[in-house]
C-alpha cells in the first residue's frame, strides 16, 4: 500500500519541482533586491531610512513593510530650469545675460531622500541655489574680468571657483549633493553693451599696436646703430690694413727703385713691356703711331738699345 502511494506521488514530481522552483523565485523577488554598481538604494522600513550602496543582492521585507528607492550615484550635468538665461548686473553696472551649469553627484543619499525624494525636485531646489550664487558672484566682479584683451585680465576660472564654493556648501548641507564643477555655459552681451565693449576693445588694441610700433622703431634704431658701429669698425680696420699693405708695398718699391736707378733705360723698357702685356688684343684694336710709348720699343733703334744693354 505504501509503495503504491509513493509511486502515485512520483508520477507528479515534475509538476512539484516546477512549483518549488517558481515558489523559490517568487520568495526571492519578494524578500530581496539587487544593487547595481552605479546606483545607491534607500530602503524605507516603516518610516525608518537606511542606505545601501554595496553592489549585490540584499534581503528586504515585502511592500509595504520595506519601500525601495533607487538613485543613480554617477555624476550628472545640470544647467538649470527657470532663469538659466537671465539678465544680471556686474559690479560696474553693466547688464549681461549669463547661464551656468553644475556637475553634481549624490553624496548623502539619506539626506537627499529626506530633502527631495527624487531627482527632478532636487534639481528644482538646486536651480534656486544656482540663480542666487550666479547673481551675487557676477555682481561682485566688473565686466573687464569677464571680457578683456589684456593677458591675464580675464578671470573666468576664479569666478567659476567662487560660484562652485557658493553652491557647494548649501547643496551639501540641504540636499546631500557634492558639486564637482561649475562653469559658464553662455555669456551674452546686450546689443547696447556690445557696441561699447567693441569700442573699448578697439581702443585697447590700438594702444597695444602703438606700443608694439614704438618697440619696433626702438629695436630698429638699435639694430641700425649696431650696424653703423660695426661698419665704422670694419672701415677703420680696412684702412689700417690698407695702410699697412701700402707701407709694405712702398718698402718693396723702394728696393726695386734703387735697382732701377742703376739703369734707367732698362727700367723704362721693362715698364713699357709690362704695359704691352696688359693690352688684350682679343678685346680691342688699336691704331697708334710707333713713335708713342710703349709701342716705340718696336722701333729699330729701341731694339738695338735693348740688345746692347743685354750684351753689357
3D architecture notes:
This protein is α+β, with helices and mostly antiparallel strands and 312 residues long. It has four domains: 71 residues, no CATH class; 114 residues, 2-Layer Sandwich (Tetrahydropterin Synthase, Chain A), CATH 3.30.479; 72 residues; 49 residues, no CATH class. The chain has eight helices and nine strands. Strands 6, 7, 8 and 9 form a four-stranded antiparallel sheet that branches. Strands 3-2-5 form a three-stranded antiparallel sheet, covered by helices on one side. The C terminus is likely disordered.
List keywords for this structure.
single chain; 312 residues; alpha+beta; Tetrahydropterin Synthase, Chain A; 4 domains; four-stranded antiparallel sheet; three-stranded antiparallel sheet; 9 strands; disordered C terminus
Give a short summary of the structure:
The protein has 312 residues and is α+β, with helices and mostly antiparallel strands. Helix content is 55%, strand content 19%. The protein folds into 4 domains: 2-72, no CATH class; 76-189, Tetrahydropterin Synthase, Chain A (2-Layer Sandwich), CATH 3.30.479.30; 191-262; 263-311, no CATH class.
CATH superfamily (homologous) name of the largest domain = Band 7 domain
Q: Name the helix and strand elements from N-terminus to C-terminus, one letter apiece.
A: HHEEEEEEEEHHHEHHH
Spatial separation of the terminal alpha carbons: 173 Å
Query: What coarse outline follows from CA principal-axis ratios?
Result: elongated
| Percentage beta strand | 15-25%
CATH topology of the largest domain: Tetrahydropterin Synthase, Chain A
Amino acid at each position: 500500500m505504501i509503495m503504491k502511494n509513493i509511486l502515485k506521488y512520483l508520477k507528479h514530481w515534475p509538476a512539484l519541482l516546477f512549483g518549488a522552483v517558481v515558489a523559490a523565485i517568487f520568495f526571492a523577488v519578494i524578500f530581496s533586491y539587487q544593487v547595481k554598481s552605479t546606483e545607491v538604494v534607500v530602503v524605507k522600513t516603516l518610516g525608518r531610512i537606511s542606505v545601501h550602496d554595496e553592489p549585490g543582492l540584499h534581503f528586504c521585507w515585502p511592500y509595504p513593510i520595506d519601500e525601495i528607492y533607487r538613485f543613480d550615484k554617477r555624476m550628472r550635468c545640470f544647467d538649470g530650469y527657470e532663469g538659466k538665461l537671465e539678465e544680471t548686473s556686474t559690479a560696474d553696472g553693466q547688464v549681461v545675460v549669463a547661464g551656468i551649469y553644475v556637475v553634481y553627484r549624490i553624496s548623502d543619499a539619506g539626506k537627499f531622500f529626506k530633502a527631495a525624494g527624487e531627482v527632478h525636485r532636487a534639481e528644482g531646489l538646486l536651480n534656486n541655489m544656482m540663480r542666487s550664487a550666479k547673481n551675487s558672484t557676477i555682481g561682485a566682479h566688473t565686466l573687464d574680468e569677464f571680457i578683456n584683451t589684456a593677458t591675464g585680465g580675464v578671470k573666468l576660472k576664479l569666478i567659476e571657483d567662487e560660484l562652485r564654493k557658493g553652491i557647494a556648501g548649501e547643496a551639501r548641507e540641504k540636499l546631500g549633493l557634492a558639486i564637482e564643477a561649475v562653469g559658464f555655459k553662455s555669456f551674452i552681451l546686450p546689443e547696447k553693451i556690445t557696441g561699447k565693449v567693441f569700442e573699448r576693445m578697439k581702443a585697447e588694441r590700438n594702444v597695444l599696436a602703438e606700443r608694439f610700433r614704438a618697440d619696433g622703431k626702438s629695436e630698429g634704431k638699435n639694430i641700425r646703430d649696431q650696424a653703423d658701429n660695426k661698419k665704422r669698425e670694419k672701415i677703420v680696420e680696412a684702412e689700417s690694413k690698407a695702410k699697412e699693405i701700402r707701407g709694405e708695398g712702398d718698402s718693396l718699391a723702394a728696393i726695386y727703385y734703387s735697382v732701377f736707378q742703376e739703369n734707367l733705360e732698362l727700367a723704362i723698357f721693362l715698364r713699357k713691356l709690362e704695359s704691352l702685356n696688359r693690352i688684350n688684343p682679343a678685346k680691342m684694336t688699336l691704331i697708334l703711331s710707333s713713335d708713342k710709348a710703349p709701342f716705340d720699343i718696336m722701333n729699330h733703334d729701341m731694339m738695338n738699345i735693348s740688345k746692347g744693354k743685354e750684351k753689357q
